[in-house]
Write a structure and sequence with these properties.
Rossmann fold, single chain, seven-stranded mixed β-sheet, six-stranded parallel β-sheet, 2 domains, 19% strand
Length: 408
């Protein structure tokens, strides 16, 4: 049965290709959505790229051979089935955008039911907006195309072999093994400079981080499980051994909801300082241990770890190429699938990318664990032989941090 899907702006920002992902159904883009996209096309963040890409899609549709002018706007029949409708301006817009979009949806659902297949469903990633629509007696749902639960099925230390092609770990008779290309390899303890793995999850993570055959790693886990510290230590360790030329740490500039501190003074480095402080804290811990070891071993020359590590905001990643680099993407749970694609395609020859994050701690309003770019990455790479996904569960930061994870 054919349906009509009316898309909210945030769906198109999340996935500009979403308008083509509803099979043989009717997709409607209301006029106020076009206006919102236009207002976002110059915004200083990732939304601008998605808005411009969506606008280009709509422009191509409106100039295609299959476009037809109708009383309610323009209709485009797709070659693979289905149609896309871009409405005209039906109402004067004196209200805020959400209210205007809702007015268009009501009109499509009631006044124009003969023109559009029933049921008419409003698609938005805004939970509050979905509730409003449903309370008015209409159908509404989240954008489901890129939702996945693969991250819940994998990532833990297994008790037996499983049927995936990526690298994973299992435990047998209190021994840890890595399954790589179908072969079981015993995992042996490894230290990273002065950082010693404390749990079996950390032991597996360290082994994967040091495996040069693994190009892409996802470390998911609660706060205090050592994800970022292990990634940094392994990157520095391998850079000192000339396996990589540098460590590049990238972090999204996303505040905890309700706590945005606004604009910051100073140059780029000074502005990014507060956002990157968690990385500096981990570097200080590694540097302190390295300095202590250097004092004990007089033959070991002092190394300035800060010179090996480049710390930047993800804002500046587009257009770059990063060869021979150990790349760490911190707080990756806050990224869209579109952002993940942008990052992975930046990797040059000889580079490794490590994504760290906590899918239970997402700070962006239109993402959840199932639609996060991090979950999307796991789903798409789970059967790639140069990929490894690990879920770290034990908090080792402190006894108090562990209590916070369990009790709060």
């Amino acid at each position: 049965m054919q349906k009509t899907y009316v898309l909210d702006t945030n769906v198109l920002i999340h996935d500009p290709d979403s308008i083509f992902n509803f099979q043989d159904n009717t997709v409607v883009i209301p006029y106020p959505v076009i206006e919102e996209l236009d207002s976002l096309k110059k915004s200083p963040n990732g939304k601008a790229y998605a808005a411009r890409k969506t606008i280009r899609h709509i422009d191509r549709l409106l100039t295609s051979d299959t476009v037809t002018k109708k009383s309610y706007g323009y209709e485009v029949n797709l070659k693979k089935g289905g149609r896309i409708i871009i409405t005209g301006k039906w109402f004067p817009e004196k209200e805020k955008s959400d209210d205007v979009i809702l007015k268009y949806f009501r009109n499509i659902s009631t006044e124009m039911f003969k023109e559009f297949p029933s049921p008419v469903i409003f698609v938005t990633k805004d939970i509050s907006f979905r509730i409003r629509v449903m309370l008015e007696g209409f159908q509404a749902e989240d954008y489901k195309t890129d939702k996945t639960q693969s991250f819940q099925k994998y990532g833990d230390t297994q008790q037996d072999k499983i049927s995936i092609q990526s690298v994973y770990y299992f435990e047998n008779d209190n021994e840890l093994y890595k399954i790589k290309n179908g072969e079981a390899l015993k995992v042996r303890p490894k230290n990273l400079l002065t950082i010693v793995p404390k749990t079996k999850d950390q032991l597996c993570a360290t082994d994967a981080l040091l495996d040069t055959d693994i190009d892409l790693i996802v470390l998911n886990g609660y706060a205090g499980t050592g994800k970022t510290l292990l990634a940094l230590a392994s990157g520095i360790f391998q850079t000192l051994k000339d396996i990589y030329e540098r460590v590049v740490v990238l972090r999204p500039v996303i505040p905890i909801p309700g706590t945005d501190i606004g604009y910051l003074p100073g140059d780029v480095k000074e502005k990014l300082g507060p956002w990157m402080q968690p990385i500096y804290d981990n570097l200080d811990l590694i540097s302190l241990g390295f300095a202590t070891q250097s004092k004990k071993d007089k033959k070991k020359s002092s190394v300035n770890i800060d010179e090996l590590v480049q710390i930047q905001a993800l804002t500046f990643i587009r257009g770059r190429s990063l060869p021979n680099s150990f790349i760490i993407i911190d707080e990756a749970q806050n990224l869209r699938p579109l952002d993940i694609k942008t990052i992975v395609t930046r990797a040059g020859e000889g580079s490794k990318i490590v994504f760290t994050g906590d899918l239970e701690q997402i700070d962006t309003p239109y993402l959840d664990a199932n639609s996060s770019g991090l979950a999307y990455l796991v789903d798409r790479f789970i059967n790639e032989t140069n990929f490894c996904y690990l879920n770290l569960k034990e908090t080792v930061r402190s006894r108090l941090a562990d209590q916070g994870v369990r009790l709060l």
